[in-house]
Amino acid sequence: MESNSNVLMQRYELGRLLGQGTFGKVYYARSAITNQSVAIKVIDKDKIMRTGQAAQIMREISVMRVARHPNIIQLFEVMANKKKIYFVMEYAKGGELFNKVAKGKLKEEVAHKYFKQLINAVDFCHSRGVYHRDIKPENILLDDNGNLKVSDFGLSALADSKRQDGLLHTPCGTPAYVAPEVIKRKGYDGVKADIWSCGIVLFVLLAGYLPFHDPNLIEMYRKINKAELKCPNWFPAEVCQLLSKMLDPNPDNRISISNIREYCWFNKGPNVKSKRPEVENNTKREARFSSRLPASIIISKLEDIAKQLKLKIRKKVAGLLKLERLNEGRKGVLSIDAEIFEVTPFFHLVEVKKSNGDTLEYQKILNEDIRPALQDIVWVWQSDQQLQSQQSEQQLQIDDQQEQQQSQS
């Protein structure tokens, strides 16, 4: 949080504390430009550098870039200043699923809806080589339409995290939801571990309590390893059968998501669609990109581009370059600011914006000249993420239609 003002970087009005994530506090905020509600995770730079967690922050950004799905909390943009890193994310007005479960078991149709959306989200993550590794009701949020949103990818892993044996080896997760093979510390399949956690969540939704709980941690681990499942008498028989396969202590025998989808109980009822919140359009204001290169290389590249485009470097101070056209345009001299914000020494955010002159002239030079020239140093343009979201949603709709056609044939 910024001490002098509740307006963050002239873009977001910060509000109440929503909760604590893996690496920082999460606040409610509202866009000063579009009035859109968002959630902002505030991360202390010094803390992550001291504790060696910079790589994990990078991984969380990478994961949220590829995990763009209607049932996953979306990362809209990343910002930074000298002391803090800010993740601007989708705001889930309904709060944590945990708050609902804490009041007792859910109705079967409600639990079914949440479980189906959870499986859809987790399956999408796995298809993109992402393993969440901390699935639990506290990390599942609800939007104002009651749709499920998986959140907090701070402990997640990407497929390239696997060792030569093809397994993950970092033990993580919440004890009551963690798979037995993770506890044993002998390597585990991220897909199978997530399926176990989804099984625990399903049990909790329908029962209102944990299947293998014990106040003594060692005794709870013993129960998890034995996985002696006792379903309450109100559970449908097919759900008990499904849970026994999801909570099989042997990961080699554990059910796959494709087989979960074959269960009649899973497929009953309509396919629930979730509406994606609109992401603000930055077309006429500024453009932001992230880079995995040092600031010195980024500055050098910007200087080269200025020379190629015959732009005058009017000012260069503390990560800010002010570029100007030599000739006066329709609305005065076009001035462009390029400001670099350090997230870590090898991860930077760069904001390119018009500070004076004609907007159309600025857009033309940005899209036709500056963006193509920067492509070898850009990791991702944040303004492109909305397009990626739309494409992902369109593909999901096509997949749903094909699935319905196959089930009817």
UniProtKB/TrEMBL annotation:
Q: Give the SMART domains listed for this entry.
A: S_TKc
Instruction: Provide the family line.
Output: Belongs to the protein kinase superfamily. CAMK Ser/Thr protein kinase family. SNF1 subfamily.
Checking InterPro entries in the record gives: Kinase-like_dom_sf, NAF_dom, Prot_kinase_dom, Protein_kinase_ATP_BS, Ser/Thr_kinase_AS
Enzyme Commission number = 2.7.11.1
The alphabetized UniProt keywords are: ATP-binding, Kinase, Manganese, Nucleotide-binding, Serine/threonine-protein kinase, Transferase
Record-listed ATP binding positions: K41
Q: What's the name of the protein?
A: non-specific serine/threonine protein kinase
The record's annotation in Gene3D superfamilies points to: Kinase associated domain 1, KA1, Phosphorylase Kinase, domain 1, Transferase(Phosphotransferase) domain 1
Catalysed reaction equations from the record? L-threonyl-[protein] + ATP = O-phospho-L-threonyl-[protein] + ADP + H(+); L-seryl-[protein] + ATP = O-phospho-L-seryl-[protein] + ADP + H(+)
- Please name the Pfam families in this protein's record: NAF, Pkinase
- What CDD domains does the entry give? CIPK_C
What cofactors does this protein use? Answer: Mn(2+)
| GO MF assignments | ATP binding; protein serine/threonine kinase activity
Recorded hits in SUPFAM superfamilies, A to Z, give: Protein kinase-like (PK-like)
Limits of the Protein kinase domain: 12-266
